Amino acid sequence: MTCLNRKDLGLLALRGAVGGVLIAHGTQKLFGWFGGGGLEGTTQAMEHMGFHPGRQSAIAAGLGEAGGGAMLVAGLATPAAGAIVAGTMAGAISVHAPAGFFSTAGGYEYPALLGAAGLSLGLSGAGRYSLDHALGHRVDRPWIGVVAFVASALGACSVVSRRRHVMRLREERAVMDAGEEGAGLS
């Protein structure tokens, strides 16, 4: 009989907690579960936050959270799951960063913690109590982690950069509109 391993139990508990939270957030976005806005509400929110196109951004965020979370819970392709979660949370961090660090002020503390947990699990692996272990680590190879994290980082940089550009254009447009309104008052 195999003895229970504390490290593997800890990884299972962490995967379940982090993955469960991500699944809940992703299904809010995709299906409106747990009081979420569903795809339509999330699309509008994404457009408001500067993510364009809004619908594709809503689907990507929902799938990144729900799919990445489900993969973490199962311990399946854990390096890819961790990369998906970290990349998805990078987009969320970009939204919350202007409010500072602490979540009590609307800051990026919470998505940073989820992203760091996903990154850590992706690097450490899922442990013995996982599908990766049951499958003989066929989808948990070091090269998969490297490819997944590089792709995730490039994708996150692209999304965040595009969002910054959209937000900059909005600010410039608001300044121009304010200038036009002020010019009509003289």
Automatic annotation (TrEMBL):
Regions annotated as coiled coil: none
Keyword ATP-binding (UniProt): no
Region forming the signal peptide: none
Protein name: DoxX family protein
InterPro entries tied to this protein: DoxX, DoxX-like_oxidoreductase
Residue intervals passing through the bilayer: 112-131, 143-161
Top-level taxon of origin: Bacteria
Organism listed in the record: Kitasatospora herbaricolor
Broad class of where this protein is predominantly found: membrane
Compartments, as annotated in UniProt: Cell membrane
Keywords: Cell membrane, Membrane, Transmembrane, Transmembrane helix
Membrane topology per record: Multi-pass membrane protein
Family that this chain belongs to: Belongs to the DoxX family.
